[in-house]
Amino acid sequence: MTEDPIWQPLQAELARWIHANRSARFWLRDDDTVEPTAALDRLLQLADDFKVPTALAVIPVHTGEPLVKRLETERWISVLAHGWSHQNHAAKDKKKQELGPDRPRPLILEQLRDGCSRLAKLHPSRFVPVLVPPWNRIDPALLPYLGDCGFEALSVFGAAKPAANSLPAINTHVDLMDWHGTKGCRDHAELVAAIVTELRQRFDGSAEPIGILTHHLVHDESAWIFLKKLFQVVAKTPGGRWLSISELMKSQKPRDR
Ligand SMILES: [Zn+2]
Q1: What's the gap in Å between 165 CA and the centre of ligand 1?
Q2: What is the whole-number distance in angstroms between the Cα of residue 251 and the centre of ligand 1?
Q3: DSSP string spanning 144-185?
Q4: Fold category of 5-247 in CATH
């Protein structure tokens, strides 16, 4: 066990899961992949070292063969659709959105359909038809039509809010980055506390797997250190485990165990 006091609350919470003969489910989503980079290499190496299934949210219109080649021999990597072009279409004073109400719905849906089929063709064995809206935002009016575009699940940020006519949600809950402050990794103790809070909610009944959200292209050293430590801590205990997005899709009736 690591003796770093910052990680002690997470280790203690996972020990509680072991004593209850339970195993918490984690999954990892990393956003904004387009092409091979040194930062992507680093993420893939970490995933491989710790055997952590990793779902890359890939921007369909900007990606191509170089990424296909780079992922060829990777064992732990799935591909999801990160919108269409990750372009902001919201008004200047509004929160950034590609899939907002600012453009005609048929146009957006056509792009989403194209993005889904483009990634399926590029990554036939890796693509899992999950839509990850850029900036984790999507116009609710689009939700009933996502199935027609080829998608089988939606992944945004925060606790899932079940809605009629919407696809199942496989969300992320803890974001490593401090987007509005330092633009680097959040304080490690604060991140550990956020994960512990999620774990307690799961222990008390919420069935959602806990999604960790990363953005390899903007990671500072602190973000890499946190991710590696998290992998180390979870690897050392049966109180938690990483699941692939495919496994999560199969468990339509999610359970802790
Ligand atoms: Zn993004």
Answers
A1: 25
A2: 26
A3: GGTGGGT-SEE--BSS----TT-PPB--B-EE-B-TTTTSSB
A4: TIM Barrel (3.20.20)
User: How confident is the model over 70-118, as pLDDT tens digits?
Assistant: 999 999 999 999 999 999 999 999 999 999 998 999 999 999 999 999 9
Give the Å distance between the CA of 82 and the centre of ligand 1: 7
Longest CA pairwise span in the chain (Å): 55
151 CA distance to ligand 1 centroid (A)? 18
| C-alpha span between 192 and 174 (Å, rounded) | 9
Q: How many CB atoms lie within 10 A of CB 47?
A: 22
∠ at Cα 20 (17, 21), nearest 5°?
Answer: 85
Query: How many Å apart are CA 108 and CA 190, to the nearest integer?
Result: 37
Q: Cα of 215 to ligand 1 centre, how many Å?
A: 8
Distance 19 CA to ligand 1 centre (A): 38
3-state class (DSSP) for residue 239: coil
